[in-house]
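Incident log, structure service

09:12 report received: a user says their structure output differs between two submissions of the same chain.
09:20 pulled the input from the user's history:
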Amino acid sequence: MLPSEPTVHYGFGCHGNGVNTAPWAGMLLAGSVAGTVALDALPAPYRGVPLGLLSPAVRRLGLKAAYLWYGLTERH
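09:34 re-ran on a clean worker, output below:
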């Protein structure tokens, strides 16, 4: 639920785990809309929009490092 608009519900962030996460998130979203699931019942990563603590430049640097690391480890 968006803090500024409690009638808006959303699910995101499956990142390749959609086969198991999307139906679970859909069930929780439906329960939230119906009022049968409290937001406190959700795991912390699913309770709201991420804060975006890292700047885009730091995220790009981390992504480059991850690509380098996984590229090197897959060549063994």
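09:41 both user submissions now match this output. Likely a transient worker issue. Closing.
09:42 reviewer note: The CA atoms of residues 2 and 52 lie 16 Å apart. The mean pLDDT is 78.
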